[in-house]
Design a protein that fits this description.
Beta-Lactamase, 5-stranded antiparallel β-sheet, 6-stranded antiparallel β-sheet, alpha+beta, about 45% helix, elongated
């Protein structure tokens, strides 16, 4: 503590007993700094009474206001008024603002230190950096000023010959703290007059929302955007508090008339229901056609005729499944993954094979396709899967048939492959261009706007189809 005592001897007229009192306080400075997380000082007046001297300083280990030590530096009254007040009056001062020796805005709490005679010989100071507090206060002050001017500014704009009302779009109410409407633009005035049959300006806003009886209730009720039905109309409200000098002075309310939008939504929902009903009826009609074809197939004695009937029935069933899925969907698009998982077992069973002998596998993401793509793709899958069953699985008596697909940069790749019990030994048949393959090529090129080919990899024949998710017509 020699340096502390030397400073006291050099800059003050303290007695040895006074210095001892200050030294005892100085011993605990570091603990206080760590406990509070703030810089702690001991200051004392110089003999001339015009300046104070920093006798001791302790800083918390995690942070400090000061980049260098200020021990031994002079403190001036203009920068730290709380220090001078406590030194001269003996009063405790809390959160008094000042400026540090390095120009940082600070808040000081100052406690006087007295000797045995009760005389103030120094002060214990805790300093806190308030730079962020001042920035926040400036923002709040700016917002408060803006809020104070809001009603008058909006009213002024509404009375001038500009297009402010039109480009704002939403209805705007400004309420005072009693709930009276101090401002309403044209949109808001029209809504209020239609609903309450009275002028908006000067009226009580609670007439529009009878379940609210105070501005606080309005703010709580409309803190999030809320859709409210009033009469036959639909509006979306949201409220924002107006604060002036830290007090609630009212609120601003945004309102949008969504009546026409709701009518359009209802029309779309009705149309969607009609479309789903159409899909349902088309599906039923296709199933009826398939049932008639089955009756005719059973009456035929020719295996060739039966085979052609079965192929036609499968094609009709595939299209019917697309319509069945559309009948259950909200929009004009189906989940391609779901379709594949449903069509595979149907085609296996229609071929006369048991699902216990044939493993079906579908791999790929959930891709949604519109009807203009889904229906031709359903026919393509039907032909390719039927071909795999006929020329691959059925010859082996069992095996696996899979549909794998992926999407990249708007292009969808579809791979149909099969594997019998002994796929390496059995003859792998790449079909000639019969009716089925002609259907595939025609649909892929003309409807899907893509390409199709067969591949042989590791002794397995695979059919590959690639096409764009979007049609050329979509880009026009």
């Amino acid at each position: 503590m020699d340096s502390f005592r030397n400073l006291c001897k050099r800059f003050t007229n303290f007695t040895d007993s006074d210095i001892s009192v200050l030294e005892q306080v100085a011993l605990s400075l570091q603990n206080v700094a760590e406990l509070t997380g703030n810089d702690i000082f001991i200051d004392a007046l110089t003999p001339n009474g015009r300046e104070a001297i920093v006798l001791a300083w302790a800083k918390p280990s995690h942070a400090s206001i000061y980049s260098t030590s200020v021990v031994g530096e002079l403190v001036y009254q203009n920068n730290e008024p709380a220090v001078y007040h406590s030194l001269t009056t003996g009063e405790v001062k809390r959160d008094i603002r000042g400026v540090s020796q390095e120009g940082v805005p600070i808040a000081q709490t100052v406690v006087p230190i007295s000797n045995a005679a009760g005389e103030v010989i120094g002060v214990l100071i805790m300093e806190r950096n308030i730079s962020k507090d001042l920035q926040q206060e400036e923002r709040v002050e700016f917002l408060s000023f803006s809020v104070e001017k809001l009603s008058s500014t909006l009213m002024s704009l509404s009375l001038t010959e500009n297009n402010f009302e039109e480009w704002v779009g939403n209805g705007i109410f400004v309420l005072n703290k009693q709930g009276k409407i101090t401002y309403a633009n044209k949109h808001a005035s029209r809504i209020f007059e239609e609903c309450c049959q009275e002028d908006a300006l000067g009226s009580n806003f609670f007439a529009l929302l009878p379940n609210c009886h105070s501005v606080n209730e309005v703010l709580e009720y409309l803190k999030d955007s809320l859709e409210i039905i009033i009469g036959e109309n639909c509006y979306r409200f949201q409220a924002y508090p107006l604060i002036f000098q830290s007090q609630l002075s009212g609120c601003a309310i945004s309102v949008v008339d969504q009546t026409e939008l709701k009518k359009k939504e209802q029309e779309l929902n009705t149309q969607s229901m009609i479309i789903r009903e159409i899909h349902h009826r088309v599906k039923n009609n296709l199933h009826n056609i398939a049932a008639v074809l089955r009756l005719q197939m059973r009456r035929s004695q020719s295996e060739t005729v039966k085979s052609e009937f079965a192929a036609s029935i499968n094609r009709i069933t595939s299209i019917a499944l697309v319509h069945e899925i559309f009948a259950l969907e909200s929009w004009d698009a189906i989940n391609f993954n779901e379709f594949c998982k449903r069509i595979l077992p149907l085609l296996v069973e229609s071929s006369g094979l048991s699902l216990s002998d044939v493993v079906t596998r579908v791999e790929g993401p959930d891709i949604r396709l519109p009807s203009r793509k889904a229906i031709p793709l359903a026919l393509v899958i039907n032909e390719l899967v039927t071909n795999s069953i006929k020329h691959g699985i059925k010859k082996a008596g069992s095996g696996e048939i899979s549909i794998c697909f992926k999407e990249s940069n708007g292009m969808i790749s579809l791979l149909v492959s099969d594997s019998g019990e002994d796929s390496n030994k059995r003859f792998l048949h790449v079909p000639q261009k019969g009716l089925g393959m002609q259907i595939v090529e025609s649909l892929v090129q003309e409807e899907l706007e893509g390409f199709f080919r067969f591949e042989r990899i590791d002794g397995v024949t695979r059919a590959l189809v690639c096409f764009s998710r979007n049609s050329k017509e979509d880009s026009k």
